[in-house]
């Protein structure tokens, strides 16, 4: 207790994450992308620049999805929030405590 109050760490949620940033599914997704890139590198070889870019694209794409960004845990969370916002109803009807009251004069 500090000055009669409680100290709650600001990063308590980060303690539940792997390396303080990733969840298990995030690492599985990224590992799958890296594994697929390695398989492509072995199958196609890195003979020229275009082939190399094609081979590392899955790792770059999944790395972008699990990249941490401010105010969201990662880019996947941001995309989920954006899709939910644009696909749900955004016209909110008032149903408050004065909805059924009649005005008195």
Features:
105 residues; mainly alpha; 3 helices; flat
SSE map:
Blueprint: H1 24-44, H2 49-65, H3 75-87
Gist?
With 105 residues, the protein is an all-alpha fold. The chain has 3 helices and no strands.
Descriptive overview:
It is built from 3 helices and no strands. With 105 residues, it is an all-alpha fold. Helix 1 runs antiparallel to helix 2. The longest helix is centred in the first third of the chain and has 21 residues. The model has no long low-confidence stretch (mean pLDDT 82).
The percent of residues in helical segments reads: 40-55%
Principal-axis shape? flat
Number of helices: 3
Biggest β-sheet strands, sense, barrel: none
Q: What fraction of residues sit in β-strands?
A: under 5%
By DSSP, the count of extended strands is 0
What structural class do you assign from the helix and strand content?
A: mainly alpha
Q: Tell me, rounded to a whole number, the average pLDDT.
A: 82
Q: What low-confidence regions span 5 or more consecutive residues with pLDDT below 50?
A: none
- For the termini, the CA-CA separation is 55 Å
Give helix and strand order, one letter per element, not per position: HHH
Rg over CA atoms, rounded to whole Å, is 24 Å
């Amino acid at each position: 207790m500090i000055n009669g109050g409680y100290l709650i760490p600001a990063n308590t949620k980060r303690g539940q994450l792997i390396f303080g940033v990733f969840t298990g599914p995030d690492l599985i997704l990224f590992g799958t992308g890296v594994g697929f890139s390695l398989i492509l590198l072995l199958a196609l070889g890195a003979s020229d620049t275009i082939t190399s870019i094609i081979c590392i694209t899955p790792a770059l794409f999944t790395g972008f999805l699990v990249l941490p960004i401010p105010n969201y845990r990662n880019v996947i969370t941001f995309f989920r929030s954006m899709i939910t916002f644009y696909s749900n109803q955004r016209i909110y009807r008032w149903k408050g405590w004065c909805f059924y009251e009649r005005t008195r004069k």
